[in-house]
Specification:
The protein is an alpha/beta fold. The protein has helices at 2-25, 77-93, 106-116, 130-135, 162-177; strands at residues 45-46, 56-57, 67-72, 97-102, 122-126, 142-146, 152-157. It has one domain (33-177): Glutaredoxin, CATH 3.40.30. The protein has a five-stranded mixed β-sheet. It is globular and about 80 Å long. The protein starts with a helix and ends with a helix.
Length: 178
């Protein structure tokens, strides 16, 4: 009996570890729980980027309309990958999108937007990254869905794909608009 257990035990351990790893692979790494959900946006007041007259402040996010807050930078390659989705949402869906230009030179941000298009109703320059820290971002791109009261209802880490927009972001925006 003991001999049989010696042969079976490694197999059982392997099966158990495989089950644990398979479960871990099914988790979405972008679905990180945020302590900011259902809380007001943090207080901030950012200057505009070059070529803009208006920056962005927390008060701009509590005007009764839902809004997407997108943290981006001209040096961020994944930001360029998601940019067409933001352009499409602003153009076709009429979604109000505001940008936070994260740790970027304002003149670089302006050139980047001139080259790729500008989906943002307002943009603030987070030159030192303090606002990003207050929001709890881990990097760029990151996007937050804000309800009309200025409360964070969702955080999306990473590139906004067409699938993420369709299955998560648009439904949240519709719900927030009701």
């Amino acid at each position: 009996m003991l001999r049989r257990l010696i042969y079976v035990l490694p197999v059982l351990v392997f099966v158990a570890l495989a089950a644990v790893f398979m479960t871990g692979l099914e988790l979405d790494p972008r679905a990180v729980p945020s302590g900011r959900i259902d809380k007001p946006v943090p207080a901030f007041d950012l200057p505009p980027i070059e070529g803009r007259d208006e920056g962005l402040a927390a008060a701009d996010l509590a005007d009764g309309r839902p809004v997407l807050v997108n943290f981006f930078a001209s040096w961020c390659v994944p930001c360029l990958a998601e940019h067409p989705q933001l352009m499409k949402m602003a153009r076709e869906d009429g979604v109000r999108i505001v940008g936070v230009n994260y740790k970027d030179r304002p003149e670089d941000a302006r050139r980047w937007l001139d080259r790729h298009g500008d989906p943002y109703a307002q943009i603030g320059a987070d030159l030192d990254g303090r606002t990003g820290i207050e929001f709890g971002i881990s990097g760029v791109p990151e996007t937050f869905v804000i309800d009309g009261r200025g409360h964070i209802i969702a955080q999306h880490i990473g590139v906004l794909t067409a699938e993420a927009l369709e299955t998560r972001i648009r439904p949240l925006l519709r719900e927030a608009a009701e």
